[in-house]
Write a structure and sequence with these properties.
The complex is a heterodimer. By secondary structure, chain A is an alpha/beta fold. In chain A, 47% of the residues lie in helices and 20% in strands. Classes of the chains: A alpha/beta, B alpha+beta.
């Protein structure tokens, strides 16, 4: 099965890297949307559905915490699984993002295999 | 925070991030003199949370071009200067986050967006700096923690 993916990160180079790593990992992508922050991502999601969202935390305008919080508050978006990709490996942050509604968390630096494993785990849980 | 703990975290984070995300393994330690002997791209950022302070990275031009090409997956064309600068900012962001996570697994932190530095200024007092040799040049890292009030 191929998935529709949304990558949310304020760094264009990081978005390109994540997309490349997803491709390298063998994870099947039907389409890939990009947004530079939570506000842009919400605007995109109003127009196009996706199967999974990968988001950074530290972003201008709307950060990852507020973005996940907004998704949880909207019935039509709450079911989309969110995987956080962040340099922050502290237990408090990971717990906080999962408590807010994120379904997965990948710490930078990460390998293609680690990202694929987390994406598949999250999607398997969602589809179970 | 003991200086050697910060130095160990800088070394571990640099090796891990440069090899895993930028495919440019550290091949040894460099000296401040060799690290400042050629043109470079510099970026810095502030952080807050459990700990606050600043972090700066200086990447020699040759190393910056290579890590940018590796990160972006450019196999034929060299990255544009703007792309190289963007990647150096991303490198600063990633190493800083990795260092702070290693220094304290409990407290979370917020990183400001990295900014490019036009000139190489002296590190703030109390900074811990480490210098690394890559195949294509050098990377210098400096971390400064604000004093607890």
């Amino acid at each position: 099965m191929a998935y529709r993916v949304l990558i949310v990160d304020d760094s264009r180079s990081m978005r390109a890297f994540v997309r490349r790593v997803i491709d390298l990992s063998g994870f099947e992508v039907e389409s890939c949307l990009n947004a530079a922050n939570g506000s842009e991502a919400l605007a995109l999601l109003n127009q196009q559905p996706v199967d999974i969202i990968l988001t950074d935390i530290n972003m201008p305008e709307m950060n990852g915490e507020d973005f996940v919080r907004q998704l949880e508050q909207r019935d039509e978006l709450r079911s989309i699984p969110v995987v956080v990709i962040s340099t922050d490996a502290t237990e408090n942050r990971i717990r906080r993002m999962l408590d807010l509604g994120a379904k997965g968390y990948v710490v930078k630096p990460f390998s293609p295999e680690a990202l694929r494993t987390e994406l598949e785990r999250v999607l398997e849980v969602e589809n179970a | 925070m003991p200086e050697n703990a910060i130095a160990e975290a800088l070394t571990a984070a640099a090796g891990d991030v440069l090899e895993t995300m930028f495919f440019s393994p550290v091949i040894g330690e460099a000296t401040p003199e060799t690290s400042h002997s050629e043109p470079a791209i510099m970026a810095s950022l502030r952080f807050s949370g459990g700990r606050s302070g600043s972090f700066a990275v200086r990447v020699s031009a040759g190393a910056a071009d290579t890590i940018a090409a590796n990160f972006l997956g450019e196999e034929t064309d060299a990255p544009e200067p703007g792309q190289v600068r963007d990647v150096v900012c991303e490198l600063a962001n990633m190493i800083c986050g990795s260092v702070l996570s290693r220094l304290d697994r409990e407290a979370h932190f917020d990183l400001q967006h990295p900014e490019l530095m036009e000139t190489c200024s002296e590190p703030p007092p109390g900074s811990v700096c480490r210098f690394f040799e890559l195949q294509e040049g050098q990377v210098a890292l400096c971390l400064q923690l604000d004093s607890a009030v």
